[in-house]
Design a protein that fits this description.
Strand order of the largest sheet: 1-2
Number of helices: 5
Distance between the termini: 18 Å
Largest sheet: 2 strands, antiparallel
Radius of gyration: 25 Å
Length: 165
Amino acid sequence: MPFVTTNGEESLDALLDRSFNRLTDRQRVTARKELLRANPRLAEIERLPKGTIINVPSRAAPRAKVSNRADDPDGEALKEIDKALSAFAKEYRTGHDTLLAELDEALEIAQTKDVIGAVNTSDELQELHAKAVGRLDDQRSRQEEQRARFDIIVEMARADIKKRL
């Protein structure tokens, strides 16, 4: 069964336009129905991440832009999975880098002269400040460990995919 991947389409019609050549109204209705039958999650296409693999049933519509006779359909699917995994990993890393930068900023602010001066006015404030800074440090360490584990898992998956290609 041929397939396409999503590219951030906000509607099924946008996916149809990108995936098929010049559909008539009747072909569009058929294609929409068959794609939804084969891929129920298309009902909420706007929630699908870029690179989601969509099966295209042969009866969905004529003149598909996808190949019905891929020489290596498993290999093509693995390449698309690898592409989607890479896109997901990039998006995850970007969010993770933002979080680490925010934690660094919070730690930096917590250790400025003004904050330290205000905290030093009371033993209770010093204790609370020490706990807060400690927790921020712990959170940053956990986030770095989580990022490292994520990178290892993604690289293992990609290596396995490349081995199968």
